[in-house]
Design brief:
Layout (H helix, E strand, L loop, with lengths): L13 H17 L1 H9 L18 E2 L9 E2 L5 E5 L1 E6 L7 E6 L8 E4 L3 E7 L9 E3 L20 E2 L2 E3 L5 E6 L6 H6 L4 E6 L1 H4 L11 E7 L14 E2 L2 E2 L5 E2 L2 E2 L1 E7 L1 E8 L6 E5 L5 E6 L2 E9 L2 E3 L4 E7 L5 E6 L8 H4 L8 E13 L19 E10 L2 E2 L11 E4 L2 E9 L5 E5 L5 E5 L14 E4 L4 E8 L4 E9 L3 H5 L3 E7 L36
Helix pairs in contact: 1-2
Bound molecules: CU-O-CU linkage and copper (II) ion (CU).
Family: Belongs to the multicopper oxidase family.
Keywords: Metal-binding, Oxidoreductase
GO molecular function: copper ion binding; oxidoreductase activity
C-alpha cells in the first residue's frame, strides 16, 4: 500500500544519488578537475542555458479556463476535476504525451471566496494512482491530498472544507509518494485562487486573463521527438532548456491596460527563477505565497524556487513590447556549483505587447492588507529541521512514521537549515508561516508576508513562525518537505500531526502513526455522495 512504485528508467536511482552526495566534499576540494569527472558520471550534466534573444514569442499565451462550479442547496460550491492522459503539441510537427485535469495539459483555475464551503469531486481517469494536493490551503489533513489520500484509477475522492484564509494565489498538484515529479512534469498542475473582501476593496487589476493573468512557469524538458525526457540534471533534479508558460512555448500577451497583474507560479520541479523585465524596470510585488503583502514591495527582481508564488503589478506604456525574463538566480552558493543547478541560466519568459492605446489602471495602493505579525515570543515550541542529502533530520520519509506532533492552539518556531552546499527548499502543509529571520537578520520585504515555501540557501538558518489554530486529528498527518520534487520523491519529507492538548505523544516511534493495513484506502473521503465526514 505504501510502497513506492519503481522509478522510471530516466530517473537516476538512489544509489547514484548517494554517491553524488558523498562526492560533493570531494568536488569542493578538488574543484574544476573533479567537475570534469563528475560531469562524465552523467549526474551533473546540466550545461549553462541562455535563451535571451532567441525566443520567438510567436504564440499567444494560453490562459487556463476558469473551472465551472455549481452550488448545492446548502451553499457548498462543487468543482469537478478529472486527472487524465492526453497529448499536446509544444513544437510544430511533434506531439507529446501529457497529462492534465479536465484536458490535455495543466488544469482549470478554481476560484472560491473566503468563508465558502467547497468540495472538489476528483475522479482519477489515469491508469495509475494519483492524489490532488491543495498547495498553500489551510484545511483538515484528511482533505489535504497528500500521500495518505491516494485516488486509485476510476475512483472518486471528494474532499470538502471551508475556505478560511486570506485571498491568495494557491495551486494544486499530485502528491503520491515517489511519483510526484513524474506526474507534475507530465502536466498535472493548476491554480486555485482565493478571494476575500479585503482584496476586493483594493484598486488592483482583477479581470482574469485580461489585466490579472496567471503565469505558470515550467521548464518541462521536451526533446526533438516531443517526448518528455529529463536527462539534463543538476543536484536539484531535471533542468529543462526551454520554458513553457501556462503550457505555451514562446508566449506573448496582449496588454490593454496601463498596469497588468501577473500571478507568477514556479511550477517547475527543480529550477529556481529570478524574474524581472528586460529593461530592468521596477514593478510592485503585491503578494507572496499566502496572500497580499501589507504594502507593495518595489523591486526589479523576484526569486522563486519550486512551488513559490509572487503577485506583481507592472506598469506598461502604450505600444511597447517588454519581456519578462529570468536571469541568474542567486542560489547563495559557490558559482561553480550554482552553475550546475540552473544558477547561471537566463531565459526569455513572456513578451508583453501593449496596444497603441491603453485603458488607465488605478495606481497600486500604498497600503494593501493588514498582515498580523506572529510574535516569536508567542512560540511555545522550537523545532529544528536540518536538510542533508535527501533526508530531513537524518530521516527519510516513512509513511508509517510520525516525525513531529504539534499541539493545536499553539504557536511554534521552526528553525530550518540546509546543511549542504547544494540547493533545497522547504514547504509546510496546513499553515502559512511567517519568516522571523534569515541568517539571524530580518528578512527582506519579499518575505514579509505569508509563505508556505521558502528557498534554503546552503548553510543559512531560517527561523519560521507558525500558528496551529485548528484541525486537530490524531490519525492523519500533514507533510513538510523539500519542494524540489526529485528530492521529495526520494524521501526528503516528514510528517506532522496536529493533536488536541491531551494527546501529546512521545517521539520518535509515533504510536499514533497511521496503520495502512487497517486503512487500505488511506484517509479521507472516498465517495461523491453521502460520506457524512466531518471535522
Ligand atoms: Cu506543493 Cu507537499 O506540496
Ligand atoms: Cu531538496
Amino acid at each position: 500500500m505504501t510502497s513506492r512504485s519503481s522509478a522510471s528508467p530516466a530517473r537516476p536511482r538512489r544509489g547514484a544519488l548517494l554517491s553524488l552526495i558523498i562526492a560533493i566534499p570531494v568536488l569542493l576540494i578538488a574543484g574544476c578537475a573533479a567537475l570534469a569527472v563528475f560531469g562524465s558520471a552523467g549526474v551533473f550534466a546540466a550545461a549553462k542555458v541562455n535563451t535571451i534573444g532567441s525566443v520567438s514569442f510567436a504564440n499567444a499565451l494560453a490562459v487556463p479556463p476558469l473551472a465551472p462550479s455549481r452550488l448545492e442547496s446548502d451553499g457548498t460550491r462543487v468543482f469537478e476535476l478529472e486527472p487524465q492522459e492526453g497529448s499536446t503539441s509544444f513544437r510544430p510537427g511533434t506531439t507529446t504525451t501529457t497529462r492534465g485535469y479536465n484536458g490535455n495539459h495543466l488544469g482549470p483555475t478554481l476560484v472560491a471566496a473566503r468563508g465558502e464551503k467547497v468540495r472538489v469531486d476528483v475522479t482519477n481517469r489515469l491508469d495509475d494512482r494519483t492524489t490532488v494536493h491543495w498547495h498553500g490551503m489551510h484545511l483538515p489533513p484528511a482533505m489535504d491530498g497528500g500521500p495518505h489520500q491516494p485516488i486509485e484509477p476510476d475512483a472518486t475522492w471528494s474532499p470538502e472544507w471551508v475556505i478560511d484564509q486570506p485571498a491568495a494565489t494557491l495551486w494544486y498538484h499530485p502528491h503520491p509518494h515517489g511519483e510526484t515529479d513524474n506526474q507534475v512534469t507530465a502536466g498535472l498542475a493548476g491554480l486555485f485562487y482565493l478571494r476575500d473582501d479585503a482584496e476586493a476593496a483594493l484598486a488592483l487589476p482583477r479581470t482574469y486573463g485580461v489585466d490579472d493573468v496567471p503565469v505558470i512557469v515550467q521548464d518541462t524538458p521536451i526533446d526533438d521527438d516531443g517526448e518528455i525526457r529529463n536527462e539534463d540534471r543538476g543536484f536539484v533534479g531535471a533542468l529543462g532548456r526551454d520554458l513553457i508558460v501556462n503550457g505555451t512555448p514562446g508566449p506573448y500577451l496582449d496588454v490593454e491596460t496601463t498596469s497588468v497583474r501577473l500571478r507568477l507560479l514556479n511550477a517547475s520541479t527543480a529550477r529556481t527563477y529570478n524574474f524581472g523585465f528586460d529593461d530592468r524596470r521596477d514593478f510592485a510585488q503585491i503578494g507572496s505565497d499566502g496572500g497580499l503583502l501589507a504594502e507593495p514591495n518595489r523591486t526589479s527582481a523576484v526569486r522563486l524556487s519550486p512551488g513559490e508564488r509572487a503577485e506583481i503589478v507592472v506598469d506598461i506604456v502604450p505600444g511597447e513590447r517588454v519581456a519578462l525574463r529570468s536571469t541568474e538566480p542567486d542560489l547563495g552558493m559557490l558559482p561553480v556549483l550554482a552553475g550546475q543547478n540552473g544558477g547561471a541560466d537566463r531565459f526569455d519568459v513572456l513578451e508583453l505587447r501593449a496596444a497603441a492605446t491603453l485603458r488607465p489602471s488605478a495606481a497600486v495602493p500604498d497600503a494593501l492588507v493588514p498582515v498580523d505579525r506572529i510574535q516569536a515570543s508567542d512560540a511555545v515550541t522550537t523545532r529544528t529541521f536540518r536538510l542533508d542529502g535527501f533526508t530531513i533530520n537524518g530521516q527519510s520519509m516513512d509513511m508509517d512514521r510520525i516525525d513531529e506532533v504539534v499541539t493545536v492552539g499553539s504557536t511554534e518556531e521552526w528553525v530550518v537549515t540546509n546543511g549542504m552546499t547544494m540547493p533545497h527548499n522547504f514547504h509546510v502543509h496546513d499553515v502559512q508561516f511567517q519568516v522571523a529571520s534569515v541568517d539571524g537578520k530580518e528578512p527582506g520585504p519579499e518575505l514579509a508576508g505569508w509563505k508556505d515555501t521558502i528557498y534554503l540557501a546552503p548553510q543559512v538558518e531560517y527561523r519560521l513562525l507558525l500558528r496551529f489554530e485548528d484541525y486537530a486529528d490524531s490519525d492523519v498527518p500533514y507533510m513538510y518537505h523539500c519542494h524540489l520534487l526529485w528530492h521529495e520523491d526520494n524521501g526528503m519529507m516528514g510528517q506532522f500531526l496536529v493533536v488536541e492538548p491531551g494527546e501529546q505523544r512521545d517521539l520518535p516511534g509515533a504510536p499514533t502513526s497511521p496503520k495502512h493495513d487497517q486503512h487500505p484506502d488511506g484517509y479521507g473521503p472516498r465517495q461523491t455522495e453521502g460520506t457524512g465526514h466531518d471535522h
